Amino acid sequence: MSTENFRFYIKVRTALNIQARIIHDELYSVYGDQAPSLTTVKRWSQLFREGREEIEDESRPGRPITETTSENIEEIRLLINDDPYLTIEELQEQTDLSYGTVHRIITDHLNLRKVTARYIPKDLTDFQRAERVRICKENLAKFQQGTWRLCDIITGDESWFYHKQIGRKSSNAAWMRRGDPPPTVVRQ
C-alpha cells in the first residue's frame, strides 16, 4: 500500500472521529510492519483534524538539480567520445560542472563505467555475451566428461584481452591462427 493510500485511510477514519491509536491498530493488523508508526498516524490525524485536505507531501525547500540537463549530458557524451581516457576532474574543468554532477551524468545517464583508464558501456556486447555462453557450455561439457580442471580457467579483464590479443591482429594473428600460446613477455 502506498503512503498516499495510508494517509487517505487515516483521513477517512479521522473524519469519522476515530482515535489515532485505533486507526494505527487497524492498519497494523492488516499490514503489519509495513503500516505507518503510531507517531505518524497521530501526526496525520492531527493535521486532518486541523483542516488539512491534501494527502500528498508538500514541496520541500532545497536546491533542485539544475545541472543535469540534456545539454550537459550531451556535452559530457561528446567529450568522452572524443577522448575516452578523460578523468572526471578533466571533464569537470572543461565543463565547469561539479564532480558529483559529472559522475552522476556518466554513471546514471550515459550508463558508462571506467575500465583500464577509459570509459566503456556497462553492458556486454552481443559478441561478449555469446562468447561467455560458449565458454560456459564448453566447461560444462568438460565437467560432465570428468576432464574439467580448475587450473584450466584463466580469468582477467576482457577489455585487456580484446585490446591486447584481438585488437592487434597484425602482430598476433599468426600465433592465434596456429593455436600456439602467446609469446611470453617478462616484465619487472
From TrEMBL:
InterPro entries: RNaseH_sf, Transposase-MT_Hybrid. It comes from the Eukaryota. GO terms for molecular function: nucleic acid binding. Gene3D superfamilies: Ribonuclease H-like superfamily/Ribonuclease H. Pfam families: HTH_32 (PF13565). PANTHER family: MARINER MOS1 TRANSPOSASE-LIKE PROTEIN. This is Mos1 transposase HTH domain-containing protein. The lineage of its organism: Eukaryota, Metazoa, Spiralia, Gnathifera, Rotifera.
